[in-house]
Amino acid sequence: MKRILAVLSLALAALMAAPPARAQDAGEAVFKRNCAICHTTEPGKNKIGPSLAGVVGRKAGSIPDYSYSQANKSSGVTWDEATLDTYLTAPTKFVPGTKMVFAGLKNPDDRTAVIAWLKTQK
After folding, report:
1. What is this structure's pTM?
2. Rounded-to-integer distance, Cα 48 and Cα 98, Å
C-alpha cells in the first residue's frame, strides 16, 4: 500500500508540474499560428515585422535596423503584459497608424498564452 501511495504521489507531483510546460506549448502554438508569418523570436532577425525576442520590457519602436511606423516609434509604449494584451486585442486601435495589419487575437486565453511564452524569449 505504501508503494502504491508513493507512486501515486510521484504521479500527482508530475501532473502538477506539467501545466507550465503545456502553457508554454500553448503560447508557442499561438505564436506559430498567428505571429510567425511576420515575426521571429531570434534576436537580431527581423522579418516583415520586428524580432520579438526580448519584447517584454522593451520600448516600442526601438530595435535598430527595423523600419517602424512613426506611430509606433512615437507611441511611448513599453511592452509589458498589460500593454501587449491590449495591443494584441486590436493593434490598430491601440496604436493608430501602426504598420501591423493583423486584426488581433480575440481569444483572451490565446493572448495570455502567447504573452507568457514571449516572456521566455530573450
Report:
1. 0.81
2. 13
pLDDT tens-digit map of 102-121:
999 999 999 999 999 999 99
DSSP structure class, residue 99: S
The x, y and z cell numbers of residue 13, run together, are: 507531483
Residue partners of 98: CB distance under 8 A and separation at least 6: 69, 71, 72, 91, 92
Residue 78's beta-bridge partner residues? 59
Residue type, 49: G
- Buried/exposed code over 19-49 (b: 16+ C-beta within 10 A; e: otherwise): eeeeeeebbbebbeebbeebbbbeeeebeeb
Q: What is the DSSP string of 30-98?
A: HHHHHTTTT---STT--SSS---TT-TTPBTT--TT----HHHHTS--B--HHHHHHHHH-HHHHSTT-
Contact between 114 and 30 under an 8 Å Cβ cutoff? The reply is yes
